[in-house]
Design a protein that fits this description.
Blueprint (H helix, E strand, L loop, with lengths): L8 E2 L4 H13 L3 H16 L21 E4 H15 L5 H11 L2 E3 L20 E4 L1 H21 L4 H16 L8 E6 L5 E5 L4 E8 L12 E2 L6 E2 L24 E6 L1
Parallel strand pairs: 1-2, 2-3, 4-5
Antiparallel strand pairs: 5-6, 6-7, 7-10, 8-9
Helix pairs in contact: 1-2, 1-3, 2-3, 2-4, 3-4, 5-6
Length: 262
């Protein structure tokens, strides 16, 4: 938006103000402090022309960040500095979400550019993964399961490609440091994992097996994994002669995919 009547203050931050905001973010020593420092530095810059300061606001008179606006390029630079610093505490996603409610609004101003600054990697030097022995069995079993799908359906098959890609993608996420530098991985089923991160965020890498269905036109039957019974919902049509055609053989590894669940 560019309507100057929409905001109490709408202007670019000066180079000195941007430097002060970055310095406050770099000095933060916790996730909470990143947000606090950013808000304090931003509105210390934006409020004085109104004859106000942060001290004028409290629980009875709340500051509305949406009543202020800065150029989009500066907003993105400040947010980027915050999320980079958040890597030190494994809170990048949390900080990114919080900033949406705490930062001013934005407007487009092609004349405002932000000079690049040297990138600082704030992540801890080490990421410690603790894997229970049962979880190591799950990781090995999932790998064997993918190999089995390749052997039965072929390495170019949808069944193998979908399973292997989803497993590799989620396995790689275990090594990312988005949620902290200490991660504990335990078993959550024959082919699933439970992941507890240093930031306190817990999620699962869950295997979702495909249902074995009848592929004959008009039939919606599903066969039980034991292969002994086909089941229908009450209103579902059935094969007129009961000669079902399963979507994959009873003796085949069960296709499926892994997904991230919080």
């Amino acid at each position: 938006m560019t309507d100057t009547t929409a905001y109490r203050v709408q202007r670019p931050l000066t180079a000195a103000e941007m430097t002060a905001i970055r310095a406050a973010i770099d000095a933060a020593d916790s996730s909470v402090e990143i947000l606090t420092a950013t808000v304090q530095a931003l509105f210390t810059a934006l409020l004085p022309p109104l004859g106000e300061s942060l001290a004028d606001y409290n629980t009875g008179r709340r500051l509305d960040p949406g009543a202020f606006a800065i150029p989009r390029t500066q907003w993105e630079a400040i947010a980027g500095a915050c999320t980079a610093k958040a890597d030190a505490y494994g809170s990048r996603a949390q900080i990114a979400l919080e900033l949406i409610n705490l930062m001013p609004a934005t407007y487009d101003d092609p004349a405002v550019t932000v000079p690049p600054v040297p990138h600082t990697d704030h992540r801890p030097y080490e990421h410690v993964l603790t894997v229970s022995r049962e979880a190591t069995d799950v990781i090995a079993a999932a790998t064997r399961h993918c190999d089995g799908l390749a052997g039965h359906f072929g390495a170019g098959s949808r069944q193998y490609q979908d399973a292997a890609q989803s497993w590799q993608h989620n396995l790689a996420r275990l090594f990312a440091m988005d949620f902290g530098a200490r991660t504990r991985i335990t078993c959550d089923g024959d082919l699933s994992l439970l992941v507890c991160t240093g930031s306190g965020f817990t999620y699962g890498i869950i295997f979702h097996p495909d249902r074995r269905r009848c592929t004959r036109p008009g039939c919606t039957a599903v066969i039980n994994n034991d292969g002994h019974a086909w089941t229908y919902l009450p209103a579902d049509p059935a094969c007129p002669d009961g000669q079902h055609a399963p979507s994959f053989p009873l003796d085949a590894p069960q296709p499926g995919t892994w997904s991230f669940h919080s």
